[in-house]
Structure formats: C-alpha cells, structure tokens
Prior knowledge:
This protein is mainly beta.
Amino acid sequence: MVRIIRLYLLFLVFSIFTFDIFAQELEIYDAESLNPIDNVAIYSKDRTRSAISDANGVVSLDAFEMSDSVFFQHPSYESAVYTKKQLEESGFSVYLNRETVHLEEFVISAYRWEQDVDEIPNQITKVQKSRMILENPQTTADLLEVSDKVFIQKSQMGGGSPMLRGFATNSVLLVVDGVRMNNAIYRSGNLHNVISLDAQAIENSEIIFGPGSVTYGSDALGGVMDFHTKTVKLSTNAEPNIEIGAMARYSSANNEKTGHFDFNYGNEKWGALTSITYSDYGDLKMGTRKFPEYKRNNYVERIHRVDTIVNNDEPNLQVPTGYDQMNFMQKFRVRPSSAFNLVYAFHYSETSDIPRYDRLIQKQDGQLKNAEWYYGPQRWQMHHVEGVYNKQNFLFDDMKFSLAYQYYNESRHDRSFNDLWLRHRDEELDIFSFSLDFDKEIGDNLLYYGVQYDYNTLNSTAHSENIETGEVSPVQTRYPNGDNDYNALAAYISYKNNFNDEFTMITGLRYSYFDIFSSMDTSDAYYNFPFNQMNLQTGALNGSVGLVYRPTDEWRMKTNVSSGFHAPNIDDMAKVFDSEPESVVMPNENLTPEYAYNVDFSVERAFWNLANIKLTGFYTWVKDKMVRRSAEFEGKDSIMYDGVLSEVHKLVNADNASIYGFNAAVDFFFPGSLQLNADYTYIKGEDDKGTSLRHVAPPFGQIALKYQEGYFTIKTDVKFNGEISANQLAPSEQSKTHMYVLNDQEEAYSPAWWTLNLKSSYVINENFTISGGIENILDIRYRPYSSGIAAAGRNFVFSLRAHF
C-alpha cells in the first residue's frame, strides 16, 4: 500500500509540471461562515446560458460572454447579479448572504442527474459539509446518523449498519459517486461496510427514502444512501489553484486520534486531488448511569497458555473494542473543453483487526463462550472512471458513462473458550460495474434513460490453526468453495413532465436480469450436499410514478408510488453459517426476488420567516420476503456444526409483510439567529402472522436549539430512542439476552433512552475553524436497539481544521 501511495504522489508531482490550463471557474461562498455553497443556480438574463455550483461551491463560466449579467439564485440565500467583468475583477469569488427561511436545498441527484428538488417526489435529506464540521462524526456510519432520520445499529465499534424505513443490510443501497457498493455477499444480518468510506473525504451525502430500484436496481427497498466525495477544483485564471486542507480530532470516550490531509492542484484544463486520513481508536468507554446489565465485568485473556476469565477493573470499559483505519483517495480530472469532463478516482481503505464485541460477551453454561472473535483487516479499493459529455443532439443533451472496479476482502476469526484451534475464514471479491446514462430535454420536460451491468466473482477459503503448535487443518468455508459468479444487467427509462409551474410528474420503469452461479464440492468432508451446483436465473420489473404540487412558494406537496426489489445474491442463496447459538443456516437454491410496493405522501409548509414544517407518511407492502425458517438437511432438523448440535434453518420466500410510519420535522426561526429544530420518526412493521420485523427501529429523533451569529455556531440537543417491549421484539432478537435488558419475566427487551449533547464551531479566520463539544453530557449507559455494543458515555470531542 505504501508503494501505491508513493507511485501516486510521484505521478501527481510529475503531472503538476507537465500540463497546461484554460477554463474559467467561479467560487461561491457563504458571506458569514466562509463555507462554499453548492447547488447555486447561475444564469444569463435571457436564461439561455446556465450552470450550477458543485459540492465545493465551484461553477464554470465558460458558457457566459464577458458582456453578460450573471444572476445568482439559491432558496437559502439572497439573490444577486454581477457582470462577468465584475466577477473577473473580484478574482472570480462571490459571497452570498443567507436568507432566514427556506424549504429545501436547490438541487439533488436522486435520478442520477442533478435536478431541482422542487420537482422530486421522493423524501430526501442531505447532510451538508457545514453540518459535518459541527457534529464531528467519527465514521461514515456516524455521519448518516447526523441526518436524524437514519437509525444506526452497531455490533462492534468498527461498524455501523444503517436502517431505513424498516429495511437494512442488503435491502438498502450504498452508492459512492454513482457506483454501487453493495456486492454479492451483502448479507441479511447486520452489515458494516459503510465504514470503508472516509467521512473526511465526503463533500455531502443524500439519503433517498423508499424504493429506488428504477434508478439504482436491486437492494434499494428501504432507500439509497448516495455519497459524494470531494471533487478536483480547477483554476479560474492563468494561475494554478492550489489548496491544502488538514484536520486533527480527539475524542475522549475511545481515545480517538484522527488526522486528515488533502491537497488540490488545478489549472484550467487539468487537476488532481489527494486525500489521506488515519484514525486510531482505543477501547470504548460506556456511560456510568442506568442499565448496569451492559457492564463488562470480565473478559478472556490467555495467561501462561491458558484461557483465563479476568475481572475488569473498569467495568464500563468495553474490552476489547479498539481498532485503527487508514483511508486514501486520489483523483485526477481532465476537462479538455466545456462540453467534456473526465475524472479518474482511486479509493483505498484498510482497517486493523476489529473485535466483534457482541460475540465476545456471549455466554454458554454461565461463562463466556468465545476466547477470540474478530474481523480481520477489512480492505476495500475502487478504481473509477467517469466521463460527462454535454452536447445537444438528437439522442441526448447529456451523456454520462461510469466504469468501476472494486476489490473487497473481509475475514472472520474465532476460537471458543479453552479451544486450541483458531478458525480463519476469508472472502475475496472482484467487482466490475459499468453504466451509461443519458438525459434529453423535450420541451419543458426531461427524459432519462440508461443501461447498467454488474459482475461479481467470489473466492471463499477457510482453515483452522492450532495456536500452540501452528498446525493447520482445513475447515468448512462460509460460501461454496468452487466458482461463485454474480451477473446483473438492467435498462431503465424515466420521464419528468412539468405540466406547469405548479405540477410535476416523474414516472419510470426498469427491467433487471440476474444470473447467479455457485459450484459445490460434493466430496466436501463436512456436508454431503445433494447437489453440486446452484444456478439462479431470474428477472425483475419495477416502476414508479410520483407527483409534486407547488400551489405557492410556501407550500409543497408530494406523493410517490414505487416498487423495489432485492434479488437473491450469493450470500442469500449459498451461505452456510451460524446465525445464533445452536442454529445453522444452510443453502437454498430455490430463492426468488423479494418485492416492496410503496406509497408515501409528504406535505411541507413555510410560514413567512418564522417556521418550516414537514410531514411524510409511508406504507410499504413486502411480497415474498426472504426470512429464516426451520428446515431439514438430509432428513434431519439438526446437525453437528462447530461441535454443537444446531437446528437447521434456511432462507426462504415465506412471508408477506407490512411496514408503515411517518417522519415529522419542524424548524422554528426566532429573532437573534436562534433556531429550534425537532425531528421524529415512527415505524411499525410485521409479517402476515403479526410477528415483528427485525430491522424496524424503535421511535427515534431529536430536539435541538441552535444559535448562529457570524462565525460562531453553538447547538444543544436531546437525542432519544423509544422502547421495544419483549412482546414486540423480533423472534431472532429474543434469544440474544446478552445484548438486551431482561424484564421481570426474564424476557429480553430494548429499553428507551435519551442523551443531552452540546456542539459548537468557530471560524477563526479564512484558514482555521475550531469545533468541539460534549456528547452524552449526563453519562447515560445505553445501547441502541439491536446493537451488541453500548454507546459512548460522556465524550469530549475537539477538532481543528485548516484550509489554505
């Protein structure tokens, strides 16, 4: 990895001195905070020339003449107008003043192209860079939680599994710069791949709620989390644009030490961006008040070659949970003309070993079950080439192509208490993807269409190692030990019809075809499978139609009817694993896609300069839901697995389910730069037998009071989480008594909790910003629903950011 970084840096230095430059770009900033403003629309007086600022507040002026007046529009800022000559005299920098009340950000990219949010029927929320600076999230999972609309589950500190509208894991979609991260082994159990993304390299993120399969394909049932990383900033004049950024952060609850550095070089035709982040996390300390059941009273250490249960001198310290992580991103951008933009991006992420804390607190016969259980280094890399061509012709106005290769490596390592054999299981994935997207303006309306292809190949290996002698012995692999291939091909079309200034309708269709193959070794000494291969060929058709009504500038109403699907992947179809104590899940070659049919409605109202209220309700019906059910293998309902007699289960298309709920958000604006924000989410979900669904989060939300004046911002908030009673807990959770609190009947339940927090930031000058805060001020000991690790206790956070 060090060699790779050196090669990129050498190439970067070489390139700086060998390329020339030609274009003009304008930078747009907030007049108070000095932060760049994205999604600012600029246009000429006759509106024949227009453009939109990107995530760095940068917008091209190539289309504008020197005599043009350039108009600036953004619903959050006061309108402005300058001549192009005035902009040149100002050094191509503009500072806009903020308006008091706004309905929403101007542009989002929910349909793979940037669009006016007034015309999008989906519920969407964005996490802007300014919010990230104030909140100081440690990982990308924590960044999603900042939105106040995404529930995050954690099995260990190095993780974070997002839950959206009762869906999670392989039923929600992760996208980075338009590329799917979901792969062939994204599982139905809690999933933590989102931490592979560097939170410090993300410019902003969009969370699109509800099925998004028309645009994104399989897995987008509960929603899409679309991350946009920092872009290369080119020069606006003959001088090269050189920017340096750095950040240092410390958090007390886990002794976090994070450092970040980025470097941008850009001329008028070409540029490069380098970003590096390193984080070191110690063991996480929980709170000291409430729920003593979560204490870590003892743990396993190997002393003098003997597994020994050791009393924990600090029972609120969760031993072991610490790990470290490194992220590297390199981008190159070439813009030979105003009509063509080409970007190459390389992402690399690697963690140390990550202790699986929820497995380390499991007990068997009254004592700790496992001596070791950890994920090996999680490695992810992506090479991505994206080109955008803007030239009107008969077929399209804009064309975008994307070609990506991802490599993903994960491993699991576990050893039972007093067992000398340490089991190692390793999975390697090569992931190729290609997409071609077009848009075409037809009068006042827009047509979107495109094709996508994804190919995954998996190699699964396993062995067991004697920790004293070093002897190695083969063991069963997690996935089939032969060929494992996943192919997905799709085409989609979507049409946006602007009937008039008040009504917009968007409708679309997508067809996807899947070919999944896994070969089984019938001579496997562990399982005598009655088949030697599994081959699933299936297709899925889904669609959506949405309507937006804007009767006035203060009102917005939306309704959206859509379908989504999750096609079986290799993990669903072919995995053998222990889902919980004394239970084993076996392969099933007869799975079919599960579908979600959704309708939602939202209404938003701005009250002068006083308040903004938004309410969204939804109902989702799930057909052929994949669930675990009791089964037989070779006529037996239980088999020996890892030396334990385990009940056989299979993933089957067994149930239909209903999920419904609402989100309410209120913003009040008071004189003197004071704001009150409240956000509340309620979701209920059960199958057709009335059984609660596993990934339906309890009611959650926050109430926040924020004061912003000039360069200073301070916010205090209360975050809260409702209870899930024992009779409402999903069956798969009821046996996990090590993760929950027991009621008077010795039944597991997830208790309610709330925390008080304080955050602030101060822009010292144009080069330095300082931020800090205290999380969980009252030091509450709590564990979010379905999480195997308790959250941080009282946590002091401090960071310093520099930009030159």
